[in-house]
Amino acid sequence: MKQLLNMSIIFLGLLWFWKIADNPSWYWFFIILLAGVIIPEVIFPSKKKKKSKGNPKANSPKVSPSKKGKTDKELLTAKLEDLNGSEFERLVALYYKEKGYEPRIVGGSGDHEVDLILTDPKEKYKIAVQCKHWRTKNVGNDVILRLSSGKRVHKCLDAWCITTSNYTKSAREAAEGLNIRLLNGLHVQDQIDRWRKNKKSTL
């Protein structure tokens, strides 16, 4: 419709310019062309523009809702292999909180391989803890070296590494030299998972 009106205005304007008007000036020619563009735009505004005025958020990028992690109760009832890394960290924090420690989750980028900081209930010294929720891959000495660095950064007296898998020979050697306690999948199954099962029975 807008294009038809555009062409009609220009056609009638040119007809007037050549046939009807007496000795017309050339500036009328440009006025006719300009009118053919502006008038249809005023009468039939662009639908896209009109929509954006009525709904300014129409063209905003969609943000997918963040995925919520499991609740504390779900951490106790879910299968250990179904937990992700951050959920495993929270489970370890819950376990040591039950044991009397004061846990603080660090995590995030720049954590220097420290996921948790536990405060001893009696002596009040801090322990840097790294959690690795791995199924088959063994923890290497690179993780142990970074944990040792994180221990100093966070001013902790002790450091522990807890994994659901195991450790390489070089990781064990590094941990022995740096006085870092290693807890593997057997410990997780024997201590943490057994504690979970006992807690589930009371829910």
From TrEMBL:
GO biological process: DNA restriction-modification system
Region spans: Disordered: 48-72
Gene3D superfamilies: 3.40.1350.10
Matches recorded under InterPro entries: Restrct_endonuc-II-like, Restrct_endonuc_IV_Mrr, tRNA_endonuc-like_dom_sf, Type_IV_Methyl-Rstrct_Enzyme
Residue ranges crossing the lipid bilayer per the database entry: 27-44
Coiled coil stretches, renumbered: none
UniProt-listed PANTHER family: MRR RESTRICTION SYSTEM PROTEIN (PTHR30015), TYPE IV METHYL-DIRECTED RESTRICTION ENZYME ECOKMRR (PTHR30015:SF7)
Keyword terms: Endonuclease, Hydrolase, Membrane, Nuclease, Transmembrane, Transmembrane helix
Domain Restriction endonuclease type IV Mrr residues, every copy: 81-188
SUPFAM superfamilies, A to Z: Restriction endonuclease-like
Example GO molecular function: DNA binding
Pfam family, one: Mrr_cat
Descriptive protein name: Restriction endonuclease
